[in-house]
Amino acid sequence: MSRTVATAQDTPAPAGATEADGPTPENAAPPPGGAAPRTPRRRSGRAGAWAELLRLPALFTVPGDALAGAAAAGARPGPRTLLAIGSSLCLYEAGMALNDWADRAEDAVERPHRPLPSGRVRPAAALTAACGLTGAGLVLAARAGRPALAVAAPLAATVWAYDLGLKRTPAGPAAMAAARSLDLLLGAAATGGGTRAALPSAALLGSHTLAVTAVSRRETTGGSALAPLAALATTGALTRLVAHRRIRLPAGRRAAAAPGLPGSGPAEGPPRATGALATALGAAYAATAARPYLHATLNPSPVLTQRAVGSGVRATIPLQAALAARSGAAATSLLVAALAPAGRMLTRRAGMRKVSIT
Question: Where is this region: Disordered (predicted)?
């Protein structure tokens, strides 16, 4: 998606997730009091400029969407799931490149170190990359089947609409939430052939993205305690839902979980074990997001608001993992959870202090 927060990406970026040097769709802002902003370390060379433009570490927040969608559909991840992940990654990066292209005039004034205003990447090249990546994402979705393409097309349209117009309107957070939700549904459609079973998980992930994006809209100016307070309440509600609410497992998992009954899909763990795992991952989600939201509520300064956005983006991964566990897919949830430390490692190696997610 587009730049949403220091999402990974630290994000929120799909949408998918504003991804710049700071944690949100609007990029990080200078600290209050007129102090000079800390310029993030940048890798030298053409490859480093593109890595910064595309915010590569933020990519680790993307595969969990498709994997959680596959789990919600009750299907084991397979080749079509990989195609869905590839499609999501392409559309996500298209949003990153398009976001900087659309913001190039603003960045020239507020963030002149960014790849486009600094001249390290040409605007035409960024726009070409956005178009090419969008096309590649749609092609990969088509390879995964018609149901997947039927979800990827509106997802791509949402990404472009967000970056080119909706980002600065009241509809911006809803558009970002829609992109993340559609990304999860893309995994369900590609793997299971339908999206109906994945709608509850998509709604939960979209609610989280809506809350993070709403906070990010004030990260450069601060001054609003309402958005982080609402995000804190949302985090509490989502934690309770993923950790405690009893759900009806997808048909394949119900059958496989019942002793002596054949099933069309493998259960990755007994209900009690996956329930405990969902609870643990829900707690990890809350631990990642709640405290920074509380700090931003008590003191809505730009710095604390930016930190809250970054933590909200990072919390996307444990939430995705909890959603997979909630659907009975223990192995898938652990795979998603492992993406968090991998993303942090790449962030350090890439020399990017903050990246956004959408």
Answer: 1-47
